[in-house]
Amino acid sequence: MRTALVRRTVLTASAVSLALLGTACGAEKGDTKADATPSAAAATSAAPAAKGKTDAELAKVLLSQADLADHTFKAADPAESTAGAAATSDKPECKVLVQAQSFAPAGTPTGTARTKVVANPKAAAEGASEEEKAKAILGALSSTATAVTLASYDAKGAEEAFAAVKTASQKCAGGYGATLGGDTGKVTKVSPGASVTAGDEALALTVEGDADGEKLTTQLVFVRKGNTVATFSALSLSGTAEQPKTVIDAQVKKLG
């Protein structure tokens, strides 16, 4: 599972079927005029539901190399999303968190956009000793890599997706089994991550797992901005990832 998790990263979401809200209010009691003015509530209920963004629209607001010059970007592989779509858990209520470590969106977003980014490590200074060069290499290997996924939804789908992740984080705090891309593993703990204040709603989680006897910690951050949910899944070959604050801040700013 370690290899699969390092390869794939996801987006969080849930089923997004919704019914439009609102019931037209009748005229005031005793008002029988045919041309009576509709109530404010009726006018509000008739307003069209918000439309989600398309792939092309999300691509324009997806973080890129031009936004963070000191990071390296790599395009996401479509095959990762395909493989992630089959992610499962031995606890159905936790499946959304397994998907949050893959590139496959759950539910039916109107559009998605994905990328991978890692902070450029500091190179050894010119004339550095072999020991200093070795430390620089180790520093590069321990860099945190972050998969960024944007998904947009019609109506209140993004709010429902965010709520589903929040609920799962509470129900699955004690751990769960996960299967991703044919690899299986065990998540031992889900706990709150370092607080994130961004967008309309934000949730930060630290997911601890056992990968072939080794501890692997993933930092998951979900930010909802309007009808778009941004998911950040951060991993490190060292086994312990840091929350990618610079990446999060830059992406949320670009969402507007």
Roughly how many Å is the radius of gyration? 22 Å
Q: How many DSSP E strands?
A: 9
**Looking at the structure, what is the overall shape?**
globular
The main sheet orders its strands as 1-3-4-9-8-7-6-5-2
**H/E order of the elements?**
HHHEHEHEHEHEEEEEH
- Which class do the helix and strand fractions yield? alpha+beta
Query: In CATH terms, what is the fold-level topology?
Result: Protein Transport Mog1p, Chain A
The CATH class turns out to be Alpha Beta
Note the main attributes of this structure.
256 residues, alpha+beta, Protein Transport Mog1p, Chain A, 8 helices, 27% helix, disordered N terminus
Describe the structure.
The chain has 256 residues and is α+β, with helices and mostly antiparallel strands. The chain has a single domain (2-16, 48-255), classed as 3-Layer(aba) Sandwich (Protein Transport Mog1p, Chain A), CATH 3.40.1000. The chain has helices at 2-7, 40-45, 55-61, 78-84, 95-99, 130-141, 157-171, 245-255; strands spanning 71-75, 88-89, 111-119, 144-152, 176-180, 183-192, 201-211, 214-225, 228-236. A 9-stranded antiparallel beta sheet has the order 1-3-4-9-8-7-6-5-2, with helices on both faces. Strand 5 (176-180) and strand 6 (183-192) form a beta hairpin. The two termini are 36 Å apart.
